[in-house]
Amino acid sequence: MQNLTMLTDLYQLTMLSGYYRHGIKGKKACFYMFFREADDLSYAVMAGNEQLKTYLENLRFTEDDIAYLRSLGLFKEDFLSYLSHFCFEGDIFLAPEGTFLFPGEPIVRVESPLAQAQFIETTLLNILGHQILIATKANRV
């Protein structure tokens, strides 16, 4: 399985670094994902649960990832060492695959240490957003 750990943006990594430096990386966090109402989007269809599960199970920074991040000159060695042992240890509650979703309704709830919740945000939004878009369009066709 392809490792998608680096499918993120630099913002998430700099936030992790800040949490690490200020000693709050393990503080409990919770966030919800939902979609807003749009003119032509009165519902959506949940999809992407398996892809998200696979991403989380394979979330690891490889030696090449750490070497690349080191080359940026933005992160201290103790933080890079922390990343070399990084994995997701939180809980995710998802609407079941195929469920009809409505604006403002929670689709996903993430409960985890702050650094982990922050880091998975971009990829979670990309994976689920893309899969939900495809499933919703297929349902409408």
Task: Please explain how this structure is put together.
The protein has 141 residues and is an alpha+beta fold. The protein has five helices and five strands. The protein has helices at 10-21, 49-57, 63-71, 77-83, 114-140; strands at 28-33, 44-45, 91-94, 100-101, 108-113. The strands form two sheets. The protein has a three-stranded antiparallel sheet, covered by helices on one side. Strands 2-4 form a two-stranded antiparallel sheet. Helix 2 (49-57) runs antiparallel to helix 5. The longest helix has 27 residues, at 114-140. It is elongated, with a radius of gyration of 17 Å.
Chain oligomer state: single chain
SSE run: HEEHHHEEEH
Which bin fits the share of residues in helices?
40-55%
Number of E-type strands: 5
Radius of gyration: 17 Å
Low-confidence stretches: none
Shape: elongated
Question: Could you describe the largest sheet, including whether it forms a barrel?
Answer: 3 strands, antiparallel
End-to-end gap? 31 Å
Strand percentage: 5-15%
Structural class of the helix and strand makeup? alpha+beta
Strand order of the largest sheet: 1-5-3
Number of helices: 5
Mean pLDDT: 93
